[in-house]
Design brief:
Layout lengths: L7 E6 L4 H9 L5 E7 L3 H10 L4 E3 L2 H5 L6 E4 L6 H10 L3 E4 L7 H14 L3 E3 L7 H11 L6 E10 L13 H4 L3 H16 L5 E9 L27 E8 L4 E7 L8 E9 L3 E7 L7 E7 L2 E5 L8 H15 L7 H20 L3 E2 L1
Parallel strand pairs: 1-2, 1-4, 2-3, 4-5, 5-6, 7-10
Antiparallel strand pairs: 7-11, 8-9, 8-15, 9-10, 11-12, 12-13, 13-14
């Protein structure tokens, strides 16, 4: 914990999604001082350092972690670097905000959580979609018993063509840990479980497919296959049926590409004994994304809440800064990221073995 009256000195590792972290930290000038940036893309990092007036720039994250005045870091790197960088940061006495997924494997995630607990450091994960105005409105409605007991949830993130790039780390299992399930699915799994009060999963039955990606189809518009395109060894569609300890069930569908009417859209639809709700976000829209369903005076009723547009990334970064400065518990924690990672692992195992996995 740092003094609540002093500015938290932070470093950002990774110059891709790291931009979102820099932008968010920059909205907190009274609480945060961005003192260092590290990344391997020298041109991009140099531009970011100039844009955000960052005084120290490193090509090796270990040099950033060696700076004694840095108190906290954001880890915004490819998945295979989340665990080693987080473990090194915690060992260097830094608090850590890590992009999703927490890690590539459960063993890595467990090591990260244990290390942070042992060192007394904050470890948070960027599940930013739960901070949106529509998700927060839905959560308050559920917590106020607006849906009653939730017994079934449909969740997913589906793309018509959205494979990041052939030959990139995204499509190589040894560097990503998987395809759209570990890339996009972690967000909607977190949303669904968070909305339901984080019940524990007890059984998973799943299937995965790589129907388009290995053939060079389904790429982001304008993206050309690279020379490493034949290294595509992850799924482009993952499906799962999950039984929860409460007796409720959760169905999941996540894709990077498919011949479908979906564009780049995510959803969480909840069925409750007293009402229902549908959160459907098409192409990152911020308006008209939420529906409530109920019977009012014996009449079928649909409500469309007018939810505020809220910057989720900025809010999760703000929560991280608050947790470090005050020492008060916050969310989403590394433990919550680990719970989602365990579920992702069970989905992949069920798909690989062709049978239900008991947890």
């Amino acid at each position: 914990m740092t003094s609540s009256s002093s500015r938290l000195r932070v470093g950002v590792i990774g110059c891709g999604v790291g931009r979102a972290h820099l932008t968010s930290y920059a909205t907190l000038p009274d609480d945060v001082e961005i003192v260092a940036l590290a990344g391997t893309d020298e041109d991009r990092c140099r531009r970011l350092a100039a844009e955000f007036n960052i005084p120290r720039l490193f090509s090796d994250y270990r040099d950033l972690l060696a700076q004694p005045d840095i108190e906290a870091v954001s880890v915004c790197t490819p998945n295979y670097l989340h665990a080693p960088i987080t473990l090194a940061a915690v060992a260097a006495g830094k608090h850590v905000l890590v992009e999703k997924p927490l890690a590539m494997t459960v063993a890595e995630g467990e090591a990260m959580v244990r290390a942070a607990e042992k060192a007394g450091r904050v470890l948070m994960i960027v599940f930013n979609y739960r901070f949106r105005g529509d998700a927060q409105t839905l959560k308050r409605h559920i917590d106020a018993s607006g849906l009653g007991e939730v017994y079934y949830v449909q969740a997913g993130w589906l793309r018509r063509h959205g494979i990041p790039a052939h030959g990139s780390w995204f499509v190589r299992k040894e560097q990503s840990g998987g395809g759209p399930l570990i890339d996009l699915g972690v967000h909607v799994l977190d949303l669904a479980l968070w909305l339901m009060g984080r019940p524990r999963a007890v059984a998973v039955s799943a299937a995965t497919y790589a129907a388009l990606g290995p053939r060079g189809r389904g790429l982001w518009p304008g993206v050309r296959p690279s020379s490493g395109g034949d290294n595509f060894d992850v799924e482009d569609l993952a499906l799962a049926f999950i039984r929860l300890e409460t007796g409720a069930t959760l169905s999941l569908a996540v894709s990077w590409a498919g011949y479908t009417g979906w564009g780049d859209d995510y959803f969480v639809h909840l069925w409750g004994r007293e009402g229902g709700a549908e959160l459907t976000v098409r192409s990152y829209a911020e308006a008209d994304t939420l529906r409530f369903f109920a019977d009012v005076a014996g009449v079928r009723t649909e409500m469309r809440p007018q939810c505020p547009a809220v910057p989720g990334h900025a809010l999760v970064v703000g929560e991280f800064v608050r947790a470090v400065k005050t020492g008060h518990p916050t969310s989403p924690t590394g433990e919550e990221g680990l719970a989602v990672l365990r579920l992702v692992d069970a989905i992949y195992r069920s798909a690989a073995e062709g049978k239900e996995i008991r947890l």
